[in-house]
Design a protein that fits this description.
Layout (H helix, E strand, L loop, with lengths): L14 H13 L3 H13 L3 H4 L12 E5 L6 E5 L2 H13 L21 H14 L11 H14 L4 H11 L4 H7 L2 H12 L3
Antiparallel strand pairs: 1-2
Helix pairs in contact: 1-2, 2-4, 2-6, 6-7, 7-8
C-alpha cells in the first residue's frame, strides 16, 4: 500500500523474462502462480477477474467469456494456444477432479486467494528468482506486460495503442499511453532529440 501523495508505478516484464519465469515456476512446482502469471499476461484481465476463473471456463472452447467486476461489461477473450497448453498440463499435475472449482484457490481450498496476498507472493517470487524490475512488482504487471508485448510486436504503432485502449477498457488513447508509460517515454525522448 502506498502512502498519501506517494507516486507508485508498476512496471512490465520483458517477454523473455515472462517466459523464463513461468517455465521456472512450473519446474519448481509453483503451479498456482505459474498459472496466475501466464493467465494474467495472456488475457490481460484485472486481478479481481483472474481470481474468479474456473478450470471449466477453458474447456472445449477457444473463447473465454468473463463479466468484468470493475466495469460490469462482458469480455470475450481468444484463448491463446500456449496458455491453453499450460492450463491443461498443470491441471493434470494438480489432478483437478472438479473443473468448476476456482483455479486460484486459497490454502483452505474454499475460495480464491486474496488480491493483496497475490502481490505479497509476487514480490517473494521475483526475489526468489532474482528478477529485478524498474518499478513495483504487482498484479498490474500482467496487463502491462501484455500491452508492451503488443506494442513491440506492432512497432509501437498508433493502431496497436487504439486496440490496447479497447482491450483494457480505457476511455482514451492518452490514458492507455499513460498506463503503459508511453507518454513518459515520449516526453523523455524529447530531451534526447535536442542536438547541436
Amino acid at each position: 500500500m502506498s502512502l498519501k501523495g506517494q507516486r507508485t508505478t508498476t512496471t512490465s516484464m520483458d517477454w523473455d523474462q515472462f517466459k523464463s519465469l513461468i517455465s521456472k515456476l512450473e519446474r519448481d512446482g509453483e503451479y498456482k502462480y505459474c498459472l496466475l502469471i501466464a493467465t494474467g499476461v495472456f488475457t490481460g484481465l484485472r486481478i479481481s477477474d483472474l481470481l474468479q476463473l474456473r478450470f471449466s471456463q477453458f474447456e472445449n472452447t477457444d473463447i473465454l467469456t468473463v463479466q468484468e467486476q470493475k466495469t460490469g461489461k462482458t469480455r470475450r477473450i481468444k484463448i491463446n494456444p500456449d496458455l491453453k497448453t499450460i492450463i491443461e498440463r498443470i491441471k493434470g499435475r494438480l489432478v483437478v477432479v472438479n473443473t468448476d472449482q476456482y483455479i486460484f484457490l486459497n490454502r483452505y481450498g474454499t475460495k480464491p486467494i486474496d488480491k493483496s496476498w497475490v502481490n505479497v507472493e509476487l514480490k517473494r517470487i521475483f526475489k526468489k528468482y532474482g528478477i529485478e524490475l524498474e518499478g513495483n512488482v504487482s498484479s498490474h504487471m500482467f496487463r502491462k506486460t501484455l500491452g508492451n508485448r503488443v506494442l513491440k510486436l506492432n512497432n509501437y504503432s498508433n493502431e496497436s495503442i487504439v486496440l490496447l485502449m479497447e482491450l483494457f477498457g480505457h476511455s482514451s488513447v492518452a490514458l492507455t499511453k499513460r498506463y503503459l508509460g508511453i507518454r513518459e517515454r515520449e516526453i523523455l525522448d524529447v530531451y534526447d532529440s535536442l542536438r547541436l
